[in-house]
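Predict structure. Chain length: 583.
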Amino acid sequence: MLKIKTLKRLTGSSLKGLKFTIGLTVLDAFFASAPYGFLYYILLDMLSANPSLQYQLSLVMWCVIMMVARVFLARAIHLKINLIGFAAGRQIRERLGEHLRKMPMGFFQSSDFGNINNRLLKDVDLIERIFTHLYAPMIATASVLIFFALGLTLKDWRMGLAMMSTLPLAVVAYWLTRNYARKWQDHMQGLMHQLNDAVMEYVDGLKELKSHQMVGSMFKRLDSVLNQTRQKAMKAEVAAVWPVYSFNFLVEVGFIVLLVAVTWAWLGESLTLAEVLLFLIAATRFFRPLLNMSMFLAELNFLNLAVGRVDELIALPQLCGGSKRPKLQDMTVRMEDVSFSYPGSATVFQHFSLTLESGKITALVGPSGSGKSTAASLIARFWELDEGAIWVGDLQNPVKLTEMDEEYWLQHVSVVFQASYLFNDTIANNLRVARPGASDDELWQALEMAKLAARVRAMPDGMETEIGAAGVHLSGGEQQRLSIARAMLKDAPFVILDEATASLDPENEYEIQMAIQALIQKKTVLVIAHKLSTIQHADQIVVLDQGKIVEQGQHSELLANQSLYHELWHLQHQSQSWVLAAG
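Prediction complete.
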């Protein structure tokens, strides 16, 4: 059975109003059970020598009053239990979102986004159903069973025991077969996640597959997953039947035992006709919810599995962070004896050290895979270091990055990646991600600096234009300029530019370079670039190769060294002069 304390742990708070709603549900169950007690007295009066119509009508009136009360109770319970369920779902999603936000990037690299999506959406939806569709009916059913069991046992303990004689056996049979069914249900959930991933992979890659005429062959792979899922689903359904069938079978045997006991008592004249009728009528009301309970418990198995998966996600460790919020005037950043490797991959840095001077522009260059973007990600606190430390501040009073509040540090950093993510929202709201309280004038100023204002003004809704998921309604260059405008709006003292102009067309590249030049004035800047022409005037150029610094200096000095930087510069000039040869 799912425990309330488990849900409280998932939501991170108490479930407000739950105890009151449980009380209303129990009261509703009492009102549903009490008329059968009145029925007994009505039967007694009917079978008496002098039946009283007035007496019977008064009992019927009480039944009507309880029925009317149940109408109002049902409405109140439905409303409150849905509000509790939706509030719990919202709290769990918010907590998951907050937890994921503080997870190291390694988790997202090694995890399947389809699996994460299933936990955030499907699993949380299942948990909501505990309240909206399952929790109240289970409490009501259990309460009705208890009221009937107590009432009928107090009336005649022999008939009460006969009625419940097979219930312990039914419970034992259910629990013995439940573990077998749960293993298959858990396995089935994993298969459904695989199926979702296969479908999404096929749909996302459809454009690429069509261009290579591989749509049919790749569908065979999806078809194989579909067939495998179908076969396993049939076995899982058979396994899920055993707990329900074994429970229901033994429960219904209890009804036969009751019939035998009632017949024996009637023939032995130890039960009156009114009592016989009462037990036969009440038994149908007792055994029907018992059969429903088996279905509730079967569904609860799936819900428990969903809770377990969400609980596992919340239990994953976050980035280690401190609470220091120092006043950062000197933005010198020192990577000191840093070692780092991606999960399951070879080491990127081994005892790596680098200093970025405050107010200076440092450019990282080198072959692909040399560690340029990794260094930027470590400074931005996207990963946990294996060894070493990153310090921020002047040499006399530096602060270790891991001892600083993560949110506070990120307030001081603007990052423009080669592929920055844009939300399925308006241009204005995408900009306000950087500064929520920014005015429209400040937004237009940022767009002007990013050379995007004219394009936005030409749109039908201006800054209120919806740009679609990941900015699909904008060109690649426009998406990048919007992300640059977002960084300009944030105006943080430390700027990381990771191939920020890679997606820009030649027509706009010069203008954006000028805009970036305005952005980085009087700031500490880390630039990662493959186009060496864009970083000629950097204060410091650091050449990386296989996670090590092989050269360091200014552009003219590095060219004079006739080493790796000179080789990269020469190769780029050769590629720029390349033309398509005539056939």
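Summary: The CA atoms of residues 209 and 215 lie 5 Å apart.
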